[in-house]
Amino acid sequence: MNANRPALLAAVLIGALLFSGCVHLPASRFNRATPAPLPAWATNSLAGSGTLAFKTHEKELEARRGCTIKQVELAVESNPAGSPTVLEYYQLTRGTNPVILLLPVSGGGYQIERFFARYFARHGFAVLIVHRAKIARELNEIATINDWMKQRMVDLRQVIDWVETRPELDAGRIGVFGISMGGIQGTILTAVDERVRAAVLGLAGEDLPYILTHSTEKGIVRRREAYLRERQLPLERVEEELRQTVVWDPKTLAPCIDPQRALLVLGVCDTTVPFKKGWALRKSIGRPETILLPTGHYTALLCIPYIERRGRKFFQARFDTERQDGLPRPTLASPKAKAR
Quick check: is 191 in a domain? Predict the structure, then answer.
C-alpha cells in the first residue's frame, strides 16, 4: 500500500487540477523549524566572491510613467577580463523600493521576462532582469556544467552587492523570481545568499543529472542525442558522469532554504523539467507554499496572470513580515561593494 501512495497522490492531484484548475497548497505546518546549514564546500567556494568595486555603464532604454528602463553593464574592477553582467533595470522614479532579481529562462529574447517585469514595476517593485550568461553546450561539455553554475552564483551575488550600493533600492527587501532555468538558479541563489528574503521559483526541479538526461526539451534532446552518438555511450553512463561532476544542484542545496521564504510553482504535466523532480524539490525545501498548474512547461504561459498575482502577494507578505520581525542582516553576504 505504501509503495503505491505517491502514484495515488499524483492521481488525486491531477484529477483535482483537471476539474478545478490551479491548486494552491499552503506551506506545511510540519516543515522543519530551521534550514540546514550551508555545506562547507559551498561556503568556501563563495568566500572570495565578494568584490569591493564595480565599474558600471548605464544607458536609458525607455521612459514609462513612474519607471525608467535602463541597461546596466556591471563589471568587476578586479576582473577586467571578465564579461560584464548585463542588467535590464526597471528603476522606479520615487522612493526607496524593494527589488526583484528576475532570472530568465534558458533561451529566447526576454519577452516573457519583460511581461513579469512590467507587472511587478507597476506594483511598486524595482526589477532587475539579469541577462543570461553564455553556457557551454550542456551535454557536449559535461565537465563545464558545474563550473558554469558556480560562476553564475558568483555573478548573481555580485548583482546583490551592487544593489546594496544603490540608495533607491532597499537591500533589506530583495526577492528572486525565476522560471525554468531561472527557477533552478534562483533555488541555488536563495540557498547560498541569505540576502534573498523571498523567492518565487517556477517550473524548477532538483537533480540536474536526471533533468538533463530525461528532459523532453528539443534543444536538450538534440544535444543529448548528438553526444550519445559521438561518444557511443548509453544514457545511463552520461547520467552517471553528471552525478560525479555536478554539485551545484538544487538537490544538494535546497535543504538550506527557509521554506517560509519560498513559493514554488509547478506544472503537473511538465516533462521539460519533469514534474516528479519539481515535487522532489518541494520536499527538499521543506514543503513550502506551492501552486500546482494543470499544464506542461510551455502551456504554463496561459497562467501568467495568475502567477503574477500570486507572486506579487507572496513578495508583499514576506517583505512586510520581515520588516515587522526586524531580522538581523545575513552573515553570508559579500563585503560592502562600491560602484563607480
Answer: yes
Here the CATH number for the domain that contains residue 210 is: 3.40.50.1820
Domain extent, residue 121, equals 42-315
What's the pLDDT tens digit per position in 65-105?
A: 899 999 999 987 666 557 899 999 999 999 999 999 999 99
Tell me, yes or no, whether 32 lies in a domain. Answer: no
pLDDT in tens, 50-63: 555 778 999 999 99
Given a cut of 80, whether residue 137 has pLDDT beyond it is: no
pLDDT value, residue 149: 93
| Residue 5 burial by Cβ neighbours in a 10 Å radius (0-12, 13-18, 19+) | exposed
| Residue 19 maps to a domain | no
Q: Could you give the number of structural domains in the chain?
A: 1
93, three cell numbers: 522614479
By the 8 A CB rule, do 169 and 99 touch? Answer: yes
pTM to 2 decimals?
0.88
For residue 3, is pLDDT > 70? no
Given a contact cutoff of 8 angstroms between Cβ atoms, the answer to whether 97 and 169 are in contact is yes
In a domain, 94, yes or no: yes
Cα distance between residue 7 and residue 12, in whole Å: 9
Q: What is the pLDDT at residue 287?
A: 96
